[in-house]
Amino acid sequence: MKTKVLMVCLGNICRSPLAEGILKSKVDPDKVFVDSAGTAGYHVGNPPDHRSVAVARQNGLDISNQRCRKFSSIDFLEFDHIYVMDKSNFSNVIQLANTEDDRAKVKLLLEEIDFDISEVPDPYYGGADGFEKVYQMIDRACEAIAKKLT
């Protein structure tokens, strides 16, 4: 049985698509399924932000085929681990939880590593350098998650 991991940010176009792509590159796809979603439905059906696609490509990953989707309460039934990028995402996801088991699945992504901040900043309104910084943060956290899952 595969372990299922869901990465969640606000719009599912910047941070969570990167987290999905990065974690997928670090785990055995026969053992771990990784997906991503957003807490808002602004971009449903769209590909990730071109800057996320570019920074992923610069790091040897192709996330261009991903499509945005909105998080729903059904995701609690489908996924074993739900990693959110910031406290706002955490609050939005927890509000949809029905049980303590649901709530226990949700963690801030950066809680997986010893880091000086607890939230992955949203690079959407910044420049390309913000996307690279976010990529590096997410990469470190995904490395720790991959080690736990193997």
Could you characterize the architecture of this molecule?
The protein is α/β, with parallel strands linked by helices. It has one domain: 3-Layer(aba) Sandwich (Rossmann fold), CATH 3.40.50. Helices cover 40% and strands 14% of the residues. The protein is built from 6 helices and 4 strands. It has a 4-stranded parallel β-sheet with strand order 2-1-3-4, sandwiched between helices. Strand 1 (3-9), helix 1 (15-26) and strand 2 (32-38) form a beta-alpha-beta unit. The two termini are 13 Å apart. 42% of the residues are buried. The mean pLDDT is 97.
Keywords:
4-stranded parallel beta sheet, Rossmann fold, 150 residues, alpha/beta
Tally of contiguous helical segments: 6
Per CATH, the class reads Alpha Beta
Look at the helices and sheets and give the structural class. alpha/beta
Q: Name the overall outline.
A: globular
- Major beta sheet summary: 4 strands, parallel
SSE sequence, one letter per element: EHEHHEHHEH
Q: Helical percent range?
A: 40-55%
Distance between the termini: 13 Å
Question: What is the CATH architecture descriptor?
Answer: 3-Layer(aba) Sandwich
Number of structural units classed as domains: 1
Radius of gyration: 14 Å
How are the strands of the largest sheet arranged? 2-1-3-4
CATH H-tier superfamily: Response regulator
Q: What is the number of beta strands?
A: 4
What is the CATH T-level topology? Answer: Rossmann fold
- Mean of the pLDDT scores? 97
Uncertain residue segments: none
The proportion of residues in beta strands is 5-15%
